[in-house]
């Protein structure tokens, strides 16, 4: 089976589903945001706040390129904006990854964003987050496997669904 990249809007569940997928599949996985944090000693949010989004996107693409070099990593959770960058989509295609979009409704993402203690500089308020959500859907929709997510879907069930119908 192909390697899998999990994409979707902030707080759609990428990290938890990727982790669960790797558990069920018994393989290695990487969370791109965590990889960047370890490599640079700063979180994506901090890099965006201190250096700007454009600089962060360059760092993110280099990180994705390096993560993809490791063939043992079968599952990668992307950041919310990773899939909107054409170079990143090309990298995933070149490495023969199956792209899986966790398509969660905006209200669910926004509820989780508000409740989370994580700082999300690109979603500082509801209007900004909604505009970003809408503008990104076209890019997310280019994923090979869209999965509709609602608040009752457990990570276990979503991972099973991804593995059942590759
Ligand atoms: C971003 C989402 C974040 C992180 C960075 C940028 C985005 O990841 O990569 O802050 O552009 O949507 P999550 O989707 O895990 O919040």
Short description:
This protein is α/β, with parallel strands linked by helices and 166 residues long.
Description:
It contains 8 helices and 5 strands. The longest helix is centred in the middle third of the chain and has 17 residues, at 53-69. The model has no long low-confidence stretch (mean pLDDT 96). Helix 2 packs across helix 4 and helix 3 (44-51) runs antiparallel to helix 4 (53-69). The chain has 166 residues and is α/β, with parallel strands linked by helices.
Any chance you could write out the topology, listing elements then pairs?
Blueprint: E1 3-7, H1 14-25, E2 28-31, H2 32-40, H3 44-51, H4 53-69, E3 73-77, H5 86-94, E4 97-103, H6 106-115, H7 126-140, E5 145-148, H8 155-164
Parallel strand pairs: 1-3, 1-4, 2-3, 4-5
Helix pairs in contact: 1-8, 2-4, 3-4, 4-5
Bound molecules: shikimate-3-phosphate.
Shikimate-3-phosphate binds next to helix 3.
């Amino acid at each position: 089976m192909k390697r899998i990249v999990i994409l979707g809007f902030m707080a759609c569940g990428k990290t938890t589903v990727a982790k669960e997928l790797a558990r069920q599949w018994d393989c290695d996985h990487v969370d791109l945001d965590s990889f960047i944090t370890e490599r640079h000693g700063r979180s994506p949010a901090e890099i965006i706040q201190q250096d700007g989004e454009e600089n962060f996107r360059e760092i993110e693409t280099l990180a994705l390129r390096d993560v993809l070099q490791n063939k043992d990593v079968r599952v990668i959770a992307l950041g919310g904006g990773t899939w909107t960058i054409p170079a990143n989509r090309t990298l995933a295609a070149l490495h023969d990854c199956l792209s899986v979009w966790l398509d969660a409704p905006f209200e669910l993402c926004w509820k989780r964003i508000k409740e989370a203690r994580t700082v999300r500089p690109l979603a500082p308020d509801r209007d900004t987050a909604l505009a970003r959500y809408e503008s990104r859907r076209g890019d997310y929709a280019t994923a090979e496997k869209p999965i509709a997510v609602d608040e009752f879907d457990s990570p276990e069930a979503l991972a099973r669904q991804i593995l059942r119908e590759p």
